[in-house]
TrEMBL record:
Keywords: Signal. GO terms for biological process: DNA damage response. This is SIMPL domain-containing protein. It comes from the Bacteria. Residues 1-18 form the signal peptide. InterPro entries: 26kDa_periplasmic_antigen, SIMPL/DUF541. The lineage of its organism: Bacteria, Pseudomonadati, Bacteroidota, Flavobacteriia, Flavobacteriales. It comes from Flavobacterium aquariorum. Pfam families: SIMPL.
């Protein structure tokens, strides 16, 4: 009986205490920071793909083409840390109509080019030495972390300015922030290199421009809750 009475007293105490807790006056806003920069480097994902009926010969041909590609990259004085093999495969394929096997060999290399003035020279050289598939071209900034930090700060300033706009009508002030949620994503422009332009004769008198780098837009998005004073 005493235990039951004690339990009821504790229950009423908790309920009474919970009724005394008042919601915190607050304003919830979002903010955006945006930095536009011209990229100063590019990552290229390129593949040598060979096919044939003899697995050994297909692999040998694929290796020879990739060897020529690596030689080109080394001759362009790229740092060893700026290029690496990403994927290697040799797969059998069966043609049910002709009832025979063929083989498909691929090797993919990832190259980080820090000097964009060498972009055309590298891309043409890759194709000349056996690259027959450009899987991806991503323009980047070597100062990405710095620009991301600037974008985040801009996003927080934007959020606070919005909060101040809202509460100024109510005659209140924005207090301390107590929750911050980062909703940021980074997007890179990925132009497609025109493979056909590489077939133009190398002794052409007119210089060619085969890419439009554009700008990287680094965007930070935040959601912030501020206390109201």
């Amino acid at each position: 009986m005493k235990k039951s009475i004690l339990f009821v007293i504790c229950l009423f105490t908790v309920l009474a205490h919970s009724q005394e807790i008042k919601p915190i006056p607050q304003v919830n806003v979002s903010g955006e920071g945006k930095i536009k920069v011209v990229p100063d480097q590019v990552t290229i994902l390129a593949t040598v793909e060979t096919k044939g009926t003899n697995a050994k010969e297909v692999k040998k041909q694929n290796d020879q083409q990739m060897e020529a590609v690596l030689k080109l990259v080394k001759n362009m004085n790229l740092a060893p840390a700026d290029y690496k093999t990403k994927r290697v495969s040799l797969n059998p394929q069966y043609d049910y109509e002709k009832k025979k096997h063929t083989y498909n060999a691929t090797q993919t290399i990832e190259i980080l080019l820090r000097d964009l003035s060498k972009y055309d020279e590298l891309m043409e050289g890759l194709v000349d030495q056996g690259i027959n598939r450009i899987d991806n071209v991503t323009f980047q900034s070597s100062k990405l972390a710095q620009y991301q930090s600037e974008a985040r700060k801009q996003a927080m300033k934007d959020a606070k300015m919005k909060a101040e706009d809202y509460v100024s009508v109510l005659g209140q002030k924005v207090g301390a922030g107590f929750t911050i949620t980062d909703n940021s994503q980074t997007y890179y422009p990925q132009p497609v290199y025109a493979m056909k332009s590489m077939s133009v004769e190398s002794d052409s008198a007119a210089p060619r421009q085969t890419m439009a780098v554009g700008e990287i837009e680094i965007v930070a998005n935040v959601s912030v809750s501020f206390k109201l004073e």
